[in-house]
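Check out a protein:
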Amino acid sequence: MLLLLAIPLGLLIGYGLGGRLSRLIHLRFRWIALIPVALAIQLLIFPWFFDAPVFPYATSALHLLSYGLIFLWLAANLRYAPMGLIGLGALANLIVIVANGGRMPASVKALQAAGATIEATALLENGSVANVVLMSDATRLNWLGDILHVPSWMPFATAFSIGDAILFTGLVWLIARGMKTRDKGPR
C-alpha cells in the first residue's frame, strides 16, 4: 500500500518541475502485460479482501514466480533510469523473502506505530499473515524486513522495508521524470 503514495507524490513533484500529466502516456514500456499477471498471482495467494488464499497451493513458488515476472519487466525497461532503482528495491525485498521461506518478516512494533494494530495482533497470534511472517530471532535479514512505518495519521499507514523505500523513490522518480519530458529513449 505504501507504493500507492508514490503516485500523488510523483505527480506533485512532476507538476512542480513544470511537467504535464499528458506526457506520461509517452512512456513506452515493454512487456507491460507482465505486471497485471504478477499482480494477479499475488492476489490469488495473498488476497486483500479474504481471510484465506484463493489459490492455497505452492504459495512460496508462486510468490517467487510473481517476482520473476516483475524482474523480467524491469529488465525489459531498463532504458528508463528509474527502473534500475525500482529493481534495486525489488531485489532487496526478494532477498529477504527468499531468506525467510517466501515471506517478508514484519516488526510488530512498526505495525503498531503505523496504527495497524489489527494486523499486528493477527501476526502475534498466528505467526504469519498473508505474505508476512512475525519478525523474530529466527527470521533472517531482519534489517531488510518491514521495520519502518508510515505515520498512523497518513493514508495507507503500515510497516515497510528498506526495499519498499527504494522502490517508492524509484516510482516517484519515474512518474516525475515521465511528466517532465517526452520519451526520447534512455535516461
